[in-house]
Amino acid sequence: MGLNYSELTRSYSIRSIATRGSRAALNPLLIRLTSSHAYDLRDTILVAGWARSGTTWLAEVLSSIPKSAILFEPLHTERVPEAAAAGFPVPTVLSPGEGTAAQKQFMKRVLQGRVLNWWTCSCTPLGRAMRPKLWIVKEIQINYLIEWIFGTFPLRRAVLVVRHPCATIASRIAQGWAPDPTQVRVKNTAARRRFPHLEALCRDIDDPYEALAARWCLMNYVPLSLDPRPFHVVAYESLATRGASDLAPMFTNWELEMPAAIEQSLGRASGTTKAAAASSKKHGQSIHQWTKSLTREQVARILRVVRDFGMDFYTTDPEPDYARLNAAPLRKI
After folding, report:
1. Cα 330 to Cα 333: distance, rounded to the nearest angstrom
2. By the 8 A CB rule, do 191 and 214 touch?
3. Domain segments of the chain: what residues?
């Protein structure tokens, strides 16, 4: 799919486009020339979450870690043909012991930071493309694969970013991903097959906002149902309002020193934030934005689906019930 320059310039700043363009052109070559093949998968950090949950923002914040680099959405099949050839994204809920040899080999290369092209390298500053020692794999198509990854590879550092469903849906619409009333079919049938009790909840949905809410539920239900959870859960709202202190326990568990630059990084909008939204310097302001951009009726439709799924740790309050969100596993419906 070609990039529409006029559309990009209306949505993103010229500086942002130029920055990502230079990274996309030079980073793959720099990384190939300078990186070591002796890489320990235990050093990798996986950042997962549904689209518009804050995964890019958190990945860029974590890239304050010295000698780190971001591998950006390596399962995007339109941008990474290797992913499609290997059978990704499925979207299948894979469990340990499952997966083809091609899928296992490709995922190993992903976690090693070896799937390099203009797309996957576009979020790493040029200076960090020289001899990276730690890879931050940022992916929005991997929620269904977390259990499989931890059961197949010696990964030990991962974080799941969760954001209010209303905020996530409003952000998708702001990106131009408006719900299409002619295509309201709830996707992610693999999750419904793995968790058959969810099928009835999706069967009668014919409203586009409810369909998006159901997709939010499915994408988060799969990883949050794991017990124990092999990842840290970070709520976008907590990170936006509490800052670096929210990440301190995670760094302690990972046996990593938290860089002083983390706090400053938290104040910057991510590279995938549109120009208008990026003008606001405080992420804390953005946790309330959906209350202005969605109607009361739209909010009610979204939250009705969330309640039906038993995931009502998010309500009309912009912040979640953190105790319930962090309780593993999700309670049965």
Report:
1. 9
2. no
3. 8-325
What sections of 225-317 are H helices per DSSP? 236-242, 248-254, 262-266, 275-278, 283-286, 290-293, 296-308
**Cα 296 from Cα 300, distance rounded (Å):** 6
Instruction: Locate the DSSP E strands across the chain.
Output: 45-48, 68-72, 134-139, 158-162, 232-235
Closest C-alpha among 134, 79, 127, 80 to residue 107: 80
Contact present, 136 and 185 (Cβ < 8 Å): no
> With 80 as the cut, is the pLDDT of residue 274 above it?
no
Q: Using an 8 Å Cβ cutoff, are 81 and 182 in contact?
A: no
142 versus 333: which is more confidently predicted? 142
Architecture of domain 8-325: 3-Layer(aba) Sandwich (3.40)
Q: For 36-69, how does the pLDDT look when each residue is reduced to its tens digit (9 = 90+)?
A: 778 999 999 999 999 999 999 999 999 999 999 9
Q: What is the DSSP letter of 245?
A: G
Rounded to an integer, the average pLDDT of 80-97 is 88
